[in-house]
Write a structure and sequence with these properties.
Helix content: over 70%
Structural class: mainly alpha
Number of helices: 9
Number of strands: 0
Distance between the termini: 40 Å
C-alpha cells in the first residue's frame, strides 16, 4: 500500500522495492480498474450529450429510441472501460517483454506488469481531474476541458489539437515512470531503455495522426 503513495515522489525506490515483491502489482492494478471506472463515470454526462448529437445526425433512427440507445451505450462504456484498462496493463507488459529481450534485461513478466500498473496511475489521475472539471462545469463535450496544451486551441479537432494534446503533463509523467520502472526491473541503464520506450511512444503517437 505504501508504494501507491511513494510512486509519485520517489519512483525509483518504489520500483526497487516492488522488484523484490511478487504481489506489488496487485494494489496499483486494482486501483487502476477502480479509477478507470470512476473517470468514465464522471465523463458520462459530457459523453451523453455527444451520443445524442451523433444519433441526430444518423438518418433512419427513430428519435423515440434515442434514450434506450444512449442508456445501452453508457452501460457498455462503464463495463468495457475497466476491462480495457486491465487488459492494457498486460498488453504493455508483453511489449516490455520484447524490450527486455532486445536490451538483454533481467525482468520477469509480472515485474513488467507491476511497471505497467504503476505507470498508468498518473494518466488516470489526470483523467480524474478532467472528469471532475467536466462535471463541475456541466460541459457538453469531453473536449471542453483538457490539461494539455490543446486547451489553448479554440478548434477542438484536427491535427494541431491532437499534437498539442500529446503535451499533457500527466501523460508525460506516466511515460517517465515507464522508463524508470523498466530500467529498474530490467537492470539496464535508464538511457538505454528510455530511447526505446520514448521512440515507440513517438512512433505510435505521430502515426496516429494518419487517423485524425
Amino acid at each position: 500500500m505504501k508504494n501507491l503513495f511513494t510512486i509519485f515522489v520517489s519512483p525509483e525506490a518504489t520500483f526497487q522495492r516492488a522488484r523484490e515483491s511478487k504481489t506489488a502489482w496487485i494494489f496499483p492494478f486494482v486501483l487502476l480498474i477502480v479509477l478507470s471506472a470512476v473517470v468514465v463515470y464522471l465523463q458520462l454526462p459530457a459523453m451523453e450529450a455527444a451520443m445524442y448529437e451523433s444519433l441526430r445526425k444518423v438518418q433512419g433512427i427513430d428519435p423515440s429510441t434515442y434514450d434506450a440507445l444512449v442508456a445501452g451505450s453508457k452501460s457498455t462504456t462503464l463495463i468495457i472501460t475497466p476491462i480495457t484498462a486491465a487488459a492494457g496493463v498486460f498488453i504493455v507488459a508483453l511489449l516490455f517483454v520484447l524490450l527486455n529481450l532486445i536490451v538483454r534485461g533481467e525482468a520477469k513478466f509480472m515485474q513488467l506488469v507491476t511497471v505497467a500498473s504503476f505507470s498508468a496511475l498518473p494518466g488516470l489521475l489526470g483523467g480524474l481531474i478532467t472528469g471532475i472539471m467536466l462535471t463541475a462545469t456541466g460541459a457538453q463535450s469531453i473536449t471542453a476541458f483538457t490539461l494539455s496544451l490543446a486547451a489553448f486551441v479554440p478548434e477542438k479537432t484536427g491535427v494541431l489539437y491532437y499534437l498539442l494534446s500529446l503535451a499533457n503533463p500527466f501523460s508525460i509523467w506516466g511515460l517517465v515512470l515507464y522508463v524508470i520502472g523498466a530500467s529498474v526491473m530490467m537492470k539496464r541503464p535508464r538511457k538505454k531503455v528510455g530511447i526505446w520506450i520514448i521512440g515507440a511512444w513517438l512512433v505510435f503517437s505521430l502515426g496516429s495522426l494518419l487517423f485524425v
